[in-house]
Write a structure and sequence with these properties.
With about 625 residues, the chain is of the alpha+beta class. The chain has 22 helices and 22 strands. The strands form 8 sheets. A 5-stranded antiparallel β-sheet has the order 4-2-10-7-6. A 5-stranded mixed β-sheet has the order 15-16-14-17-18, covered by helices on one side. It has a two-stranded antiparallel sheet with strand order 1-11. Helix 3 runs antiparallel to helix 4, helix 5 packs parallel to helix 9 (about 355-370) and helix 9 crosses helix 14 (about 455-470). The relative contact order is 0.11. This is UDENN domain-containing protein. Pfam families: DENN (PF02141), SBF2 (PF12335), uDENN (PF03456). It comes from Iphiclides podalirius (scarce swallowtail).
Length: about 625
């Protein structure tokens, strides 16, 4: 059991440092006032409450909600859910008397010129948590805002104390938890079934809808190959969802570099870091980021992708990339398969967005499973006690899979992501998840799909259903008659003229509520009886094969290319060096395929009767090349 909310913070406009309507944010109150032992409070949180800077406004804006992500020194992510609204303030700018007027008539006192005006200052209600329950944070902050705006008579101290002190979340695999923060609300939290699986809701579907298949695949390749990726949008919600989607499409890998879905404008110098990153910025900074020469910029609002000329993004080669794009087109456009039919059947019903999201994730998971097929056969355990230490034979894996000439595979195996995968999934005795089952069953699925191509979509949908059940492990509980009740302000409540400012909360009263709730709350026997996932032996699955697709024939080069290769070798040993050099470019292109290299070895073995052979200087040079 862990807390749903670590800290509740009220951040306001710092009027003491105001210069020309611009200033900084200042933490007005935070609860609890002392740090938790397991989770210290993060300084500088006010930077992320207003990503575009703290500024006064002449117009009142509607409340906004967005989520920033902070990463501590242990690479743990802390989610900062912010509900921002405006408060009316009276500004009294003072202009000193003109020195020229004083010099003309020093005997006459000139009063300072004073002008009164009404401005609107931003204020934020912030929840800091290690849990990833964004919708619940939105609901809780909305309830507190509604109780204040509508003056419902419920003390705000009671709501904040209950939110910080009484809501506990079970670990992954736990049951649904229902709670209320004391405003007549009814809320529920459902933990996912497996801890390592990401939760995306509809974020991945949104990414593909905004950027399209080609740009999304290119962006995924850039993230997987450790490039600098920058997302740009007018909406903070799109930036957070797109970063979440890209990180989820990497599964079973974990993004290990700089991850800032919403970068404040005052910290734009972070974009000059030499390390890879995945960052989102507001569109107001788009002109500044275009000057970066090694950053890939994706505009989510326009759907464009800018790749600098100096950046080379490796892509999966051969059938792997083609199958990825075809599967995505099949999922997003199910009518494509029967579009040219003379007697086309009725178009199939489109999947809902939350299932399309899981089907897209299933396509990318299958692609990574194809690429990593047989990786467990190249793992070597060099130490067992006190903790397992494993090494991965990269050269052996690339050679056995025929991927030595694939820049995407080479770059992926050299990345920090893959080292983390080996450390996390390398031990043969551990809890397994959906990806381990996929790697085990994928060769048989591909064999059946080669006999019946219609099974590919069925296999994708089956995997998507497993991902859906991971996010919603108890659909029968959700379908029951429990309805959540969340308070919302009426339409136009933010435009009220005589809305009083948010009063400061009584810190002593909040502490009393937190203490009373902690004393009354007894540990739930059902939750304390939860057992972690049981470890078992991880099967090694099928061994690595010589192609991207299991069962693919080794010799796939055309007869013409093999004929050119044999003619070049014959000219080399017969002393016709000019003919050998003429066909050398074609031979080098042919040798990119494993089948051609195997043919070269067999031809050389047939021409050399013994292990030793005396070669001329030109023969040796061309043969080594």
């Amino acid at each position: 059991m862990s807390r749903l909310v670590d800290y509740f913070v009220i951040v306001g406009f710092d009027h003491e440092k105001e210069r020309g309507g611009l200033s900084n944010g200042v933490i007005l109150q935070r609860f609890p006032e002392t740090n938790w032992e397991d989770t210290p409070f993060h300084d500088g949180i006010e930077w992320f409450c207003q990503p575009q800077g703290w500024a006064l406004s002449t117009e009142r804006s509607e409340p906004r909600f967005y989520v920033s992500v902070l990463t501590d020194v242990d690479a743990n992510r802390h989610y900062c859910a912010c509900l921002c609204f405006n408060e009316t303030v009276a500004i009294t700018p003072t202009k000193p008397a003109d020195e020229d007027e004083e010099s003309l008539d020093s005997s006459r006192s000139v009063a300072n010129i004073t002008h009164h005006s009404i401005m609107y200052a931003p204020k934020c209600l912030v929840i800091v948590s290690r849990q990833d329950y964004i919708d619940t944070f939105r609901n809780c902050l909305g309830i507190i805002y509604t109780v204040w705006v509508e003056n419902l008579g419920v003390p705000l101290e009671t709501l904040v104390g209950n939110l910080v002190g009484c809501v506990l979340v079970p670990p992954a695999g736990g049951p649904q938890v229902r709670f209320s923060i004391g405003a007549g609300d009814r809320q529920a939290i459902q933990p996912p079934a497996a801890p390592p699986m990401p939760v995306t809701h509809t974020a991945v579907h949104m990414l593909l809808r905004l950027l399209g298949i080609h740009n999304s695949v290119t962006l995924w390749c850039a993230v997987m190959s450790e490039h600098k990726v920058l997302l740009v949008s007018l909406a903070a919600a799109r930036l957070s969802a797109a970063c979440r989607a890209l990180a989820a499409l990497m599964f079973p890998f974990r993004y290990a570099h700089v991850y800032i879905p919403l970068l404040p404008a005052g910290l734009a110098e972070v974009l000059a870091t030499p390390t890879p990153f995945l960052i989102g910025v507001h569109s107001s900074l788009k002109e500044e980021v275009t000057e970066l020469l090694d950053v890939i910029v994706a505009d989510l609002d326009v759907g464009s992708l800018h790749i600098p000329a100096s950046v080379n993004i490796p892509r999966p080669e051969g059938r792997l990339l083609a199958s990825l794009q075809e599967a995505l087109a099949l999922v997003l456009q199910p009518e494509l398969r029967s579009a040219d039919s003379a007697f086309a059947p009725p178009p199939p019903a489109a999947s809902p967005p939350h299932m399309l999201d899981k089907e897209i994730r299933a396509v990318f998971m299958r692609t990574l499973a194809k690429l990593l097929q047989g990786y467990r056969h190249c793992l070597t355990m060099i130490r067992i006690h006190p903790s397992p230490v494993l090494t991965f034979h990269k050269a052996g894996f690339l050679g056995s899979r025929g991927l030595a000439a694939c820049p995407f595979a080479v770059r992926l195996l050299d990345s920090m992501f893959f080292n983390g995968l080996v450390a996390e999934r390398g031990p043969p005795w551990r809890p397994t998840d959906i990806f381990d089952e996929l790697v085990q069953n994928l060769p048989e699925q591909l064999r059946l799909e080669s006999l019946n191509p219609d099974l590919e979509l069925q296999h994708i949908q089956d995997l998507a259903m497993q991902l859906h059940l991971n996010e919603n492990p108890n659909p029968q509980v959700v379908s029951q008659a429990y309805q959540q009740r969340v308070l919302r302000p009426p339409l136009g409540a933010e435009a009220r003229i005589h809305q009083p400012p948010l009063p400061p909360l009584d810190a002593a009263r909040v502490r009393d509520v937190i203490r009373d709730v902690a004393q009354r709350s007894a540990p739930n026997a059902k939750l304390t009886a939860l057992r972690p996932p049981q470890a078992r032996i991880v099967p090694p699955a099928a061994p690595p094969t010589g192609g991207e697709e299991p069962g693919q024939m080794l010799l796939t080069n055309s007869a013409r290319r093999l004929e050119v290769l044999r003619a070049c070798v014959a000219a080399l040993f017969e002393g016709r060096y000019a003919d050998a050099r003429k066909s050398f470019p074609a031979v080098l292109r042919a040798l990119r395929a494993p089948a051609a290299r195997a043919a070269l070895v067999r031809d050389l073995a047939a021409r050399l009767p013994t292990n030793k052979q005396l070669l001329q200087h030109h023969q040796f040079e061309l043969l080594v090349r």
